[in-house]
Amino acid sequence: MSSETKGPAVEAHADVSTGAVPGDLRMARTLWPFMLASAVGLVPFTIFSTFLVPIAHASDSGVAAMGQLRGLGGLAALAVGTALAPLIDRVRKDWAAAGGLAVLALSAALGATGEFLLLAAFCLLVGAGTAVLNPALTAAAADRFDHDAAAGRAATLITATQSLTALLAAPLVALPAVLWGWQGDLWAIAAVAAVLALLFVVRGRRAERPGAHGEKDGEKGGEKAARPGYLASFTLLGALPGVVPLLFVAMLRTAAFMGYLAYLAAFYDERFGLAPGPFALVWTLSGTSFFLGNLVAGRLLSAERPKVSGERLMTLALLVALAALVGVFFTRSLFLALPLTALVGAGHATVAACVTTLLVRRCGALRGTALSLNAAGMSFGVFLGAGLGGVGLALGGYPGTAAALGGLTLVALAFARAAARSAPAAEG
Fold it and tell me: Main location per UniProt (predicted)?
């Protein structure tokens, strides 16, 4: 484990001899900078999505053209996340996080101008910044704990924070915008991201002091740890048991879930006549179930002797998510559609927590590389799911969408089984 992560909060570390995992509140006291930065990383695009219409008017462009700029962020995240994946494990993660936050601060400032070209730059930079920020924060949080179970739980606390932020961010950015508008929101997030970037720079410098933590980043017991080269990192990661199947599970699961969310509002409107106002409650139900599923699954897997292995839980959750997704699109009852919608969210959240936990446990010193590739794959999954869901809708209506997204989930199940077959005997 990289020694950069060993700080003064030693009391929060897991007891290696017993495998005990600290409680969530105790871990949060150690991880709060990572959790806060993780939440901030989701806000720029939340502002963009929430105020898409006024942003389009301010830039003298159409809503469709402005909405398409959002896709630039996903492409940037895919490209940057893949290209820089090995570097996450080769630099101090505090500094990688600081760099991602600095890019977010710059992007928010550019977006606040309201100019079309600068808004395009905003979308590109937000995608690039979060492609570095999110895996750096998740890996750094995991590295704060010596025991694999605690490390996995730390990583899932970061992802749970992100899902909670996604649920709450829209109303939180809408309220201050009443006072200063969407541009004020962007200026505020630019300031917050800049302050957090400075905080992580200071943390990185403090950790680099020779006597600060007993050892420097990349060193153990006074000897410098050998690090693989850029291309060798990809090769070594691919050779680890089950890692590649896990990355495919994450990508395909994201494609199925995001494709489902892309057409959920239209489905509820056509099938049940729900206007945007009442549908907001459905969206809240879905988001809440996702947050709770992520939180509970992460804690379940962090037990010293979990009652169910991560691989088995991942497979069961995919089966539940598949059945619920197909059920949503075929049901004619609103009272049945609502609990099925909650099950889809909880099932996918559980799979996400399983993948994160298993990658952290299996990848060791390469966990930063793995988490970066995982984030890049999920960025690609967003576009794959929306595209295939749309093809299914065009060809066969909502049953066609169910077939397309259900097919993605079935392929994810096949990769989940491959990951389970490669599980180390002592894992889970």
Answer: membrane
Q: SS3 sequence, the chain?
A: CCHHHCCCCHHHCCECCCCECCCHHHHHHHHHHHHHHHHHHHHHHHHHHHCHHHHHHHCCCCHHHHHHHHHHHHHHHHHHHHHHHHHHHCCCHHHHHHHHHHHHHHHHHHHCCCCHHHHHHHHHHHHHHHHHHHHHHHHHHHHCCCCHHHHHHHHHHHHHHHHHHHHHHHHHHHHHHHHHHHHHHHHHHHHHHHHHHHHHHHHHHHHHCCCCCCCCCCEECCEECCCCCHHHHHHHHHHCCCHHHHHHHHHHHHHHHHHHHHCHHHHHHHHHCCCHHHHHHHHHHHHHHHHHHHHHHHHHHCCCCCCCCHHHHHHHHHHHHHHHHHHHHHCCCHHHHHHHHHHHHHHHHHHHHHHHHHHHHHHHHHHHHHHHHHHHHHHHHHHHHHHHHHHHHHHHHHHHHHHHHHHHHHHHHHHHHHHHHCCCCCCC
pLDDT tens, position by position, 234-253:
888 888 999 999 999 999 99
